[in-house]
C-alpha cells in the first residue's frame, strides 16, 4: 500500500485539484480515496499495472465527484429565510404523473437504442460516459487506436440518435 501511495499520490491529487480547484480539499480527497483502496487490498494485488492505474484513478474520480455533488446539494438547499412569506414561495419541483411517465418512456427508448448496438460500441460508450475515461484511456483498455475509438464513438452516438428519432416519430403518429 505504501508503494501505491508513493506512486499515485501526486497524480491523484492533480485529478482531485482539477475537479475541485482547492488544494486542501484535493489532499483530503486523496486520503479518503486511499482509505477506500485500503479495503480493496486483495483486489489491487490481482490487477495488472495498467488496470491498477485505471482502478486508482477511477477511485479518486468517484470520491471527488461524490464530494462535488454533496457541495452542490448543500448550496442548492441552503436558503436564508428573511421572513415567513419566503417559505410560501418555495416552488414545488415534484413532477406530475405525465412528466414521470414521459421520462420513463424516454429512458426505455434510450435503453433499447443502447442495447441495439454492438458489444464493442456499448463498452466504448460506457467507458466514455459512465466511467468518464478519455479516448486515450478507452483505446488502451479496449485495444484499439485512439482514432478508431473516436470514430466508433461518433458512429455509435449517431446510431443511438437516429434510433431515438425514429422511436419519437413512430410514437407521435
- Quote the average pLDDT: 82
Largest sheet: none
Give the low-confidence spans: none
What is Rg? Answer: 21 Å
Helix segment tally:
9
**Cα separation of the termini:** 60 Å
User: How many runs of DSSP E, i.e. beta strands?
Assistant: 0
Summarize the structure.
With 173 residues, this protein is mostly helical. The chain has helices spanning 2-20, 23-39, 41-46, 49-77, 85-88, 97-115, 119-130, 135-142, 146-172.
Please tell me about this protein's structure.
The protein is mainly alpha-helical and 173 residues long. It contains 9 helices and no strands. The protein has helices at residues 2-20, 23-39, 41-46, 49-77, 85-88, 97-115, 119-130, 135-142, 146-172.
Short key terms for the protein model shown above:
single chain, 173 residues, mainly alpha, 82% helix, 0% strand, globular
Write the layout of secondary structure elements.
Layout (H helix, E strand, L loop, with lengths): L1 H19 L2 H17 L1 H6 L2 H29 L7 H4 L8 H19 L3 H12 L4 H8 L3 H27 L1
Amino acid at each position: 500500500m505504501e508503494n501505491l501511495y508513493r506512486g499515485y499520490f501526486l497524480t491523484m491529487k492533480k485529478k482531485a485539484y482539477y475537479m475541485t480547484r482547492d488544494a486542501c480539499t484535493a489532499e483530503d480527497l486523496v486520503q479518503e480515496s486511499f482509505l477506500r483502496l485500503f479495503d480493496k487490498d486483495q483486489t489491487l494485488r490481482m490487477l495488472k499495472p495498467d488496470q491498477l492505474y485505471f482502478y486508482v484513478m477511477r477511485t479518486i474520480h468517484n470520491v471527488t465527484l461524490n464530494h462535488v455533488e454533496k457541495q452542490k446539494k448543500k448550496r442548492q438547499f441552503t436558503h436564508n429565510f428573511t421572513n415567513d412569506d419566503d417559505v410560501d414561495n418555495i416552488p414545488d419541483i415534484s413532477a406530475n404523473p405525465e412528466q414521470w411517465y414521459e421520462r420513463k418512456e424516454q429512458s426505455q427508448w434510450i435503453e433499447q437504442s443502447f442495447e441495439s448496438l454492438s458489444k464493442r460500441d456499448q463498452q466504448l460508450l460506457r467507458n466514455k460516459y459512465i466511467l468518464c475515461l478519455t479516448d486515450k484511456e478507452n483505446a488502451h483498455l479496449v485495444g484499439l487506436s485512439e482514432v478508431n475509438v473516436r470514430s466508433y464513438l461518433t458512429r455509435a452516438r449517431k446510431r443511438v440518435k437516429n434510433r431515438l428519432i425514429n422511436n419519437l416519430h413512430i410514437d407521435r403518429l
